[in-house]
Design brief:
Its EC number is 1.4.4.2. This protein is an alpha/beta fold. The protein is built from 14 helices and 13 strands. The protein is globular and about 75 Å long.
């Protein structure tokens, strides 16, 4: 497929403007900002532009086109109802500088969403400001930092993080000014409780946990972990990336967590991927309320909604205005349309689908931790080396079958890892087809390993030299 610049023909235009019928404005533009030559823009007819971008779109894989099992990323189906509601004029044309009395409907939605998220997580207070999951992590850790400083616990500067954790966890902790201490996993793939006990001391500020963890396993000792941390005046931080597995079934707040971040763009079915938009609200227990970013949405006794800036010990704003509002609308729509039982059913089906596919694949591939999983599981692809291929080769070959590969080489504690999350919306027939394709590719590896090493073979872009692409990044058309 040609680039749009390669389709350009000099003199062609996709639009025409009427002749200027008002006096031309004389704007004093600084000399250094004035162009000396016309910009190098492609010249095409409108129909050619439309066709070009539609052809590009048809090459893009998405959850609407096929199976998209990115472990820990929850690429779940996004109902079009969410998009239609977010596009309603009353939401679409709002301006953040409008007076509060003119946006009561939007404020009511945000307030009710806060209340929904409090109930789902078992927490006491919520801010909708953070723009994504990692942003929510940083916000949560800054809240913990401020709490410690305000309560003469500033010496607590260590945050414990499992060796299976998402990479954003240590990054967020370090950015908030903490030192990261790694706790090992045990032979079940869960936090090693004895190792954790040896790490906790007077400098321990918090532990960051994903539950279920990145191996798809629920931390059975969570109440023991919670008790251990709280006895040492340390807090529990919940990474909500995997809440899709337990929403409606287990509430992090009931397990002793003090801060929770949520990924609305994962758990609550708003578009996710390609860098945004996202939303990563955090929820906290009551003793942390006074440190939340301001403003939060409140309701007066009269029933009027307002932005509450009266948070004297707030960590301050973490996002311009009030968060990614359209994403909030989509999450609110999803929660309302699903209802309490629907959210619970989604978790049950996500767990059922993951365990069903795990059992199918375990007949010919090694599952890293064969215990009953929640929403995802991890394949250990070391057996592929027997045929001279790698997990990466296997993943590339999946593309030829119209299927997005799972997350690969993560978590780091599993050699040649493939982390697979089928989500709740996939049918039994789809999962059977997935298992059949995996088995077929494994057979190809046995008989013709070059096919995997050269994959993908059927896409417009073939196998890239990834090292060169990383070292010599050049995306400019010359």
């Amino acid at each position: 497929m040609k680039l749009i610049f390669e389709k350009s023909v000099s003199g062609r235009k996709s639009f025409s403007l009427p002749k200027l019928d008002v006096k031309e404005s004389q704007i004093d533009i600084p000399e250094h900002l004035v162009r000396n030559e016309a910009p190098n823009l492609p010249e095409l007819y409108e129909v050619d532009i439309v066709r070009h971008y539609n052809q590009l779109a048809s090459l893009n894989h998405s959850v609407d086109r096929g199976f998209y099992p990115l472990g820990s990323c929850t690429m779940k189906y996004n109902p079009f109802l969410n998009e239609e509601v977010a596009a309603l004029n009353g939401f679409k044309y709002l301006h953040p500088y409008q007076e509060e009395r003119t946006v009561q409907g939007a404020l009511e939605l945000m307030y009710e969403l806060q209340e929904f998220l409090k109930e789902i997580t078992g927490m006491d207070h919520v801010t909708l400001q953070p723009a994504a999951g990692a942003h929510g992590e940083l916000t949560g850790m800054l809240v913990i930092k401020k709490y410690l400083q305000e309560n003469n616990l500033g010496h607590k500067n260590e945050v414990i993080i499992p060796d299976s954790a998402h990479g954003t966890n240590p990054a967020s902790a370090v950015m908030a000014g903490f030192e990261v201490i790694k706790v090992n996993s045990n032979n079940e793939g869960r936090v090693d409780l004895d190792h954790l006990k040896s790490l906790v001391n007077e400098n321990t500020a918090a532990i960051m946990l994903t539950n279920p963890n990145t191996l798809g396993l629920f931390e059975k000792d969570i109440l023991k972990i919670s008790d251990l941390m709280h006895k040492n005046n340390a807090l529990l931080y919940y990474d909500g990336a995997n809440l899709n597995a337990i929403m409606g079934k287990v509430r992090p707040g009931d397990n002793g967590f003090d801060v929770v971040h949520l990924n609305l763009h994962k758990t609550f079915s708003t578009p996710h991927g390609m860098g945004g938009p996202g939303s990563g609200p955090i929820a906290v227990k009551s003793f942390l309320k006074e440190y939340l970013p301001k403003p939060v949405v409140g309701m007066k006794e009269s029933g009027e909604y307002y932005f509450d800036y009266d948070i004297p010990k707030s960590i301050g704003k973490v996002r311009s205005f009030y968060g990614n509002f359209s994403v909030l609308v989509k999450a609110y729509t999803y929660i309302l349309s699903m209802g309490k039982e629907g959210l619970k059913k989604a978790s049950e089906l996500a767990t059922l689908n993951a365990n069903y596919l795990k059992e199918k694949l375990s007949k010919f591939l090694d599952v890293a931790y064969p215990d009953v999983c929640k929403h995802e599981f991890v394949i250990k692809g070391t057996s592929l080396k027997d045929y001279g291929v790698s997990t990466l080769d296997f993943a590339k070959r999946l593309l030829d079958y119209g299927m997005h590969p799972p997350t690969v080489y993560f978590p780091l504690i599993v050699d040649e890892a493939m982390m697979i999350e089928p989500t709740e919306t996939e049918s039994k027939e789809t999962l059977d087809e997935v298992a059949a394709i995996y088995e077929k590719i494994l057979e190809e590896a046995r008989k013709d390993s070059d096919k995997l090493k050269k994959a993908p073979l059927t896409l417009p872009i073939k196998r890239l030299d990834e090292v060169k692409a990383n070292k010599e990044l050049n995306v400019k058309f010359d």
